[in-house]
Write a structure and sequence with these properties.
By secondary structure, the chain is an alpha/beta fold. The protein has 20 helices and 19 strands.
Length: about 550
């Protein structure tokens, strides 16, 4: 089956001279994640340009398609492919190993195929060759009705019916039998007197009105001819066996049905290549439906369908596919951050996890991940905390001093204990996401300090300083860490005059849940006019660190 192996994009839209390179591994989905306006959609547009409905050579691009809106910046897009059937060259002597597109102001677009045998460029790219690998994009704004129509020869339904037709006419005897049957059908239509009379009148009137023009009107029954038989095929949704209109479906349901249609096509016609792109599938699905769809898409990818997902939902991130997850970031231009099992293991070993290996690192992280933690991949910066007490209350203190963590794109994530701080710090920093850690010196789950030591060593704190931090009973705030002291609640009681009284009152009102009580107390302290206490000085210091921290 023809497959896409990789694409390299340069100077296209938000992607500048530092190229974006995406590899498409076998039997795994490509998952593009990142904040809004980072450039995920531009990667999809590059795929559509190369593999979509319009021939790239004749595609007119706008100024905004060039990086920095400068049409003098030459767009270069190249892709490697494999298993194409059609050959290149006048004598059909070369295999196709890829395509290259180039566009610059005042020049014709260049679109060439790359010869497998010698790497040379072949100027003639036939329609048959391009059609071996199809790119289909289904997004929140795109309708299933288009893909299940004959609006163009590139829709899914058009491709399916063409494949049906090609298989049908392989057998000459079968074609002849069908022709005889269709002739009988046409004869049956002619038995209707009114039909014959209408045909005669239409021909006579048209002849009088058109005069010497060469065109006329006639009834076309070619749909009932085996050369075009399958174009009578229509696909419609059903509910409990009853046909429904596509317009009755929600957008999320339309996306799912388009995906199942594409998967059936890819499985049934192994000679046809398909890159199926689902753009932000979470847009119209509730969380449980997102999880279900993600599970189905992962299965389809493992089954051979080439799947590309762009998403803002943690439910579509599966760390088992680590090497095909791309974090799309944008500063001056779009860049794609990808880590492999090998590079992640190297990073973990370098930061203190000496037993990490390329073979064990992916199963380890996949087993310990959760949607809550994976939300960190969509943040500009991350603050890792031990658990829900800090996760619920810390944003309230920061917001009281002017730091809106949501507006800043900072995710405060509870990792379920001190022992998980270093683990997730290593993962997120491997993807170059600035990450800060917070914990207290409560010994209940870390009696000898190994977990806290691991976290501090991972972020680069030397052993001499670690000893002081682990014995401190007061706040300690550094460039990449905040140690609350001996115990979170005790430290805050000592730092805010009203904390103890508020804590007692909220415990009586809300019960004994520490996180819920801590959150309620934080809200009450933030509502007070006082900002002159030790606690607010410490929080102010933390705000300054978070505003400036970088890896």
């Amino acid at each position: 089956m023809p497959r896409l192996k990789s694409i390299t994009i340069e100077n296209f839209r938000s992607i500048g001279p530092e190229t974006v390179d995406i590899t498409f591994p076998a039997d795994k989905p490509v998952i593009l994640i990142g904040e809004n306006n980072s450039g995920k959609t531009n990667i999809i547009r590059a795929l559509e340009l190369m593999l979509g409905e319009f021939h790239p050579k004749y595609k007119k691009l706008d100024d905004f398609d060039h990086f920095d809106r400068n049409p003098n910046n030459r767009i270069n897009i190249s892709m490697d492919v494999t298993d194409f059937h059609n050959r290149l060259g006048r004598g059909q002597e070369f295999g196709c190993g890829g395509f290259r597109f180039s566009c610059v102001r005042n020049s014709e677009n260049e679109f060439v195929a790359i010869q497998v045998e010698n790497g040379q460029e072949n100027q003639y790219v036939s329609a048959e060759l391009r059609e071996e690998l199809l790119c289909v994009v289904v997004g929140s704004e795109q309708s299933l009705s288009y893909q299940l129509s004959y609006a163009s020869k590139y829709t899914l339904l058009s491709r399916v019916t063409k494949s049906f037709h090609d298989k049908l006419i392989e057998n000459g005897g079968r074609v002849e039998r069908l022709k005889q049957l269709f002739d009988q059908i046409k004869d049956t239509f002619d038995e209707v007197d009114e039909f014959n009379e209408f045909k005669t009148n239409m021909s006579s009137i048209a002849g009088q009105m058109l005069g010497n023009m060469s065109h006329a009107l006639d009834f076309d029954f070619s749909a009932y001819d085996p050369s075009n038989y399958f174009k009578t095929l229509r696909v419609h949704p059903t509910e409990d066996g009853t046909p429904r209109s596509i317009e009755e479906l929600g957008t999320g349901q339309q996306q799912i049905l388009a995906m199942t249609f594409a998967h059936a096509y890819a499985k049934s016609f192994l000679g046809q290549g398909l890159v199926f792109i689902l753009d932000e599938p979470e847009s119209h699905l509730h969380p449980l439906a997102q999880r279900w769809l993600a599970k189905q898409m992962f299965k389809m990818a493992e089954d051979g369908l080439q799947v590309v997902i762009t998403t803002h939902s943690p439910y579509f991130i599966n760390l088992e596919y680590l090497g095909s997850i791309y974090l799309i970031k944008r500063f001056l231009q779009t860049e794609a951050v990808r880590i492999t099992p090998f590079t992640l293991a190297e990073h973990c070993v370098r930061t203190g996890a000496t037993r990490a290996t390329e073979n064990t690192i992916v199963p380890f992280y996949a087993a310990h991940s959760s949607p809550q933690i994976l939300n960190g991949f969509f943040a500009n910066g991350i603050v890792l905390v031990e658990g829900p007490t800090e996760e619920f209350s810390l944003p309230i203190y920061l917001d009281a001093l002017g730091m809106d963590t949501l507006k800043s794109g900072i995710a405060i994530i509870g990792v379920g204990g001190k022992g998980n701080l270093a683990k997730w710090w290593r993962m997120f920093t491997a993807f170059r996401i600035p990450t800060f850690i917070c914990f207290d010196n409560d010994h209940s789950d870390d009696a000898v300090g190994n977990k806290r030591t691991d976290a501090l060593r991972a972020i680069g704190i030397v052993d001499g300083d670690i000893a002081n931090l682990l014995t401190s009973m007061d706040w300690n705030i550094g460039e990449r860490y905040c140690v609350f002291g001996g115990n979170f609640e005790r430290t805050f009681r000592n730092s805010f005059d009203e904390y103890g009284a508020f804590e007692t009152e909220e415990r009586q009102r809300l019960g004994g849940s520490k996180p819920i009580v801590a959150k309620a107390v934080a809200k009450r302290l933030a509502a007070l006019d006082r900002r002159d206490q030790v606690g607010w000085d410490r929080v102010r210091n933390l705000v300054q660190r978070l505003e400036n921290f970088e890896m």
